[in-house]
């Protein structure tokens, strides 16, 4: 018979009230308590905590405290990752983040879900579906990404969005629910904001 942890990671319905998962959540909370209360200058010490807690990291990442997650071991970071203040990752299922991803403040990545009907929900049943954020994605502040979502490479998610479905590559998507606004083109390379020009990146 599968344990609750095995069911959780497999994407099956499970109950999170068992001792094993409780202890693992407590361990993550203890580690993040230290992480979130270290002096701002203690960058290496903070990163070492996350290297031990996460499933995978590289040597180049930066997460501004405070940061929260459920377990940590289901978080897989690509190279050159940056997250601003108040990132929350409910990593009951794997959260895979590619290279060169930027995340704004107050963003939440939720792999966890609960039954709509109150009886199984009150009984403690839940499920988890993985989130996949591909290379070069920028997620604006106050965005929520729901269970099972994939965000395609190079795409931008506008601030305040609620992402309930997959987002394709190379688009700007915004809103609640989040929808594709337009495709990103080469013209976007020449502009930062409105008509303010930036240096030619190819020189």
Automatic annotation (TrEMBL):
| Keywords, in A-Z order | Acyltransferase, Repeat, Transferase
* PROSITE patterns documented for this protein: HEXAPEP_TRANSFERASES
Write down the SUPFAM superfamilies for this protein, in alphabetical order.
Trimeric LpxA-like enzymes (SSF51161)
Q: Specify the Maltose/galactoside acetyltransferase domain's residue ranges.
A: 5-59
InterPro entries in the cross-refs: Hexapep, Hexapep_transf_CS, LacA-like, Mac_dom, Trimer_LpxA-like_sf
**A GO molecular-function descriptor:** acyltransferase activity
Q: Which family does it belong to?
A: Belongs to the transferase hexapeptide repeat family.
Enzyme Commission no: 2.3.1.-
Q: What class of enzyme is it?
A: transferase
Q: Which protein is depicted?
A: Acetyltransferase
Q: Which CDD domains match?
A: LbH_MAT_GAT (cd03357)
């Amino acid at each position: 018979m599968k344990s609750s942890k095995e069911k959780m990671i497999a994407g099956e319905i499970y109950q999170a009230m068992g001792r094993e998962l409780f202890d693992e959540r407590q361990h993550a909370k203890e580690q993040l308590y230290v992480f979130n209360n270290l002096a701002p200058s203690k960058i290496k010490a903070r990163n070492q905590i996350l290297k031990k807690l996460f499933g995978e990291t590289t040597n180049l990442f930066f997460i501004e405290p405070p940061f929260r997650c459920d377990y940590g071991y289901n978080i897989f970071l690509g190279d050159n990752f940056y997250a601003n203040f108040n990132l929350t990752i409910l990593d009951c299922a794997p959260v895979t983040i590619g290279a060169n991803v930027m995340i704004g403040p107050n963003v939440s990545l939720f792999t966890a879900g609960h039954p709509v009907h109150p009886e199984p929900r009150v009984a403690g049943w839940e499920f988890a579906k993985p989130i996949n954020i591909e290379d070069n994605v920028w997620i604006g502040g106050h965005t929520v990404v729901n269970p099972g979502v994939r965000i395609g490479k190079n795409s931008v998610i506008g601030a305040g969005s609620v992402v309930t479905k997959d987002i394709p590559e190379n688009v700007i998507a915004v809103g609640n629910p989040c929808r594709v606004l337009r495709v990103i083109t080469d013209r976007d390379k020449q502009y930062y904001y409105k008509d303010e020009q930036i240096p030619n990146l190819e020189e």
